[in-house]
Design brief:
Layout (H helix, E strand, L loop, with lengths): L44 H5 L12 E4 L4 E3 H18 L7 E5 L4 H12 L3 E5 L5 H11 L3 E5 L3 H10 L5 E5 L8 H6 L15 E6 L9 E5 H8 L2 H6 L6 E4 L6 H14 L2 E3 L7 H11 L3 E4 L1 H18 L6 E4 L6 H11 L4 E5 L6 E4 L12 E2 L4 E5 L12 E6 L12 H4 E2 L2 E2 L3 E5 L5 E6 L4 E3 L2 E3 L1 H9 L4 E11 L3 E10 L7 H14 L8 E4 L13 H7 L1
Parallel strand pairs: 1-10, 3-4, 3-5, 5-6, 9-10, 9-11, 11-12, 12-13, 25-26
Antiparallel strand pairs: 1-2, 7-8, 13-14, 14-15, 16-17, 17-20, 18-19, 20-21, 22-23, 24-25
Helix pairs in contact: 2-3, 4-5, 10-11, 11-12
């Protein structure tokens, strides 16, 4: 990683990010043992995914869809090249410069991201709901001089820019009739642009963690990282085809969304649909049928909320085209898996990944699902359950997950790198059990394991039991300090409409848990709340529940 930034640049190069990567001793060990993981030293991921689509016969196939337009692979390449010309010619950006991107999932956002990376720049995509202070923290860390921002999301970014004058240019996109918009400038370009000859180890993006555990960190990913991710889970588990139409809710600023909602469809020659409306469970269920979507990505909570509407749509309009439903971002309760399967007939493809690893590294295809398990390690990766010293534990024992493969954690200028990477292995911070057949069973975030009266209890297991009660819509479980038991289990429950959150309901839910899992795992405290704190990607923020107790 500390080799020359590129093998092919003739222009000036910005080494800001490379100079702030972890030292060699703190870098993850990368393994490229499979034939499909052999990459050349010079590599531009957009050239591989977009420019070579023509050679694969996909030039006229649809790539990006919305309710108002559809772009083929050839048309998308033309627009990407025009934007790349704006970035390099009009704005004078050079390889290694960071470009902040702010927008929801849209064709314009996807084109902008691809243009940034194709030009050898570093994408810093941000969640649409971030406020000025949060944007300011990201600007401080990544030091972009240019931002491309959806015209509807300018206000907070302008506030952040006022406090960070180093962000010299904020250019709007997805707007009409504005002569200085990204689209207007791009229309004045020829669309003739050769991909920057980046090295495989050059950084393509900085992915900021979604903040389930506090202050976000910036994970750096190379061009090779992203292409290696394409050759693992998508190749061996997802197995998409050029005829697939992908839909979903994860934002492109989240690596789960970037992979599922842009990069992986391109790798397969498939197309992706971006809605012009905000997703609700009911609207998404209808759109899946309207669009003819075959692959869906969303979080477990959304699958649970969408299930009754999907059942209704299927009753009215038939089975539709949907065949693959991918869940990630947080643990998938078995109650949610069974509810979705009963409503649609589709077995959810579960997976666990990490922003630091780019995407999914443990998963199983529907035909190989084992109830309660996330799945097996994805080909290309190795995973094991270890103790505090990194020694592998016997099968069936709860321990920390350690992962190694063709991608790994590279925090930008962050002392927490040493917590994540140890002896070359990545520690995502999850507690797991692995069975004799190699299936991994998620227990909890390692720091969310509840130890009560000497027993280890995983919060997701208690949540799954509570969700099986018909009165419970959502729930979150945490451990709280207790003088007598060390910790006690506390549940925060969102009840379905019409259900009464009183003392009788508390006892009902406690008895329900005792009847479904070991009695010592029941929540000794139950409170009823109108909603749960979640990140923009749908992850439950248990640390906020603890803070509120």
């Amino acid at each position: 990683m500390n080799a020359p930034v590129s093998t092919g640049y003739s222009a000036q190069v910005d080494r800001f990010v490379h100079q702030r990567l972890p030292s060699a001793s703190q870098m993850p060990t990368l393994r490229f043992e499979r034939p499909e993981l052999q990459f050349p030293p010079q590599l531009n991921l957009v050239a591989e995914l977009l420019d070579k689509a023509v050679q694969k016969g996909w030039a006229d196939r649809p790539m990006l869809r919305s309710s108002t337009r559809t772009l083929s692979y050839a048309q998308a390449r033309q627009e990407v090249d025009c934007i790349a010309q704006v970035l390099t010619q009009d704005l004078g950006l050079v390889p290694g410069n960071r470009v902040l991107l702010r927008g929801g999932n849209s064709i314009s956002m996807a084109l902008a991201w691809l243009a940034v990376v194709k030009a050898g720049l570093i994408s810093v995509a941000t969640m649409p709901l971030l406020r000025a202070k949060e944007l300011g923290d990201i600007i401080d860390k990544s030091q972009p001089t240019v931002a491309l921002c959806d015209g509807q999301l300018m206000d907070e970014l302008r506030l952040a820019q006022a406090q960070h004058p180093g962000l010299a240019t904020v250019m709007p996109f997805n707007v009409h009739g504005q002569p200085d918009s990204l689209e207007a400038r791009a229309r004045r370009k020829s669309g003739v642009f050769e991909a920057c000859p980046t090295a495989a180890e050059d950084i393509a993006l900085l992915a900021f963690t979604s903040g389930t555990t506090g202050k976000p960190k910036a994970a750096a990913h190379t061009h090779r990282d992203v292409l290696a991710a394409c050759e693992t889970w998508p190749r061996h588990v997802l197995q998409a085809t050029p005829d697939d139409i992908v839909m979903g809710s994860p934002p492109l600023a989240f690596t789960f969304g970037l992979g599922g909602m842009l990069v992986f469809p391109m790798w397969a020659g498939a197309s992706v649909f971006y809605p012009d409306i905000a997703y609700t469970p009911q609207a998404m269920a209808k759109l899946i049928h309207d669009v003819g979507a075959t692959i869906c990505y969303t979080a477990p909570t959304f699958y649970r909320q969408m299930a009754p509407f999907m059942k209704e749509q299927m009753a009215q309009r038939g089975a539709g085209s949907l065949r693959v439903c991918v869940s990630a971002g947080e643990g998938l309760p078995d109650a949610t898996r069974q509810l979705w399967k009963n409503s649609t007939g589709i077995e959810i493809t579960d997976g666990i990944g990490a922003t630091e690893m780019f995407h999914i590294f443990i998963s199983s295809a529907p035909r190989e699902v084992r109830r309660g398990a996330i799945g097996k390690v994805v080909p290309g990766y190795s995973a094991r359950v270890v103790d505090d010293d990194g020694a592998e534990l016997p099968r069936g024992t709860v321990g920390k997950l350690a992962v190694i493969g063709p991608t790994g954690c590279k925090y930008l200028d962050d002392a927490r790198q040493g917590n994540y990477v140890k002896d070359g292995w990545n520690y995502p911070g999850d507690a797991f059990v692995q069975d004799a057949d190699g299936y991994f069973f998620y227990q909890a975030r390692a720091d969310d394991m509840i130890i009560t009266a000497g027993y280890n209890v995983g919060a997701p297991e208690v949540e799954d039991a509570l969700l099986k009660h018909p009165a419970v819509a959502e729930c979150g479980v945490v451990g709280l300090p207790d003088a007598e038991r060390g910790m006690i289990i506390k549940a925060f429950c969102v009840l379905k409409p019409g259900e009464l959150g009183d003392a009788a309901m508390v006892k009902t839910l406690q008895d329900h848990v005792k009847a479904n899992i070991a009695p010592y795992k029941y929540p000794r405290e139950v409170v009823f709340v109108p909603g749960l704190p979640r990140t923009e990607t749908g992850k439950l923020q248990r640390f906020k529940l603890k803070q509120s107790s």
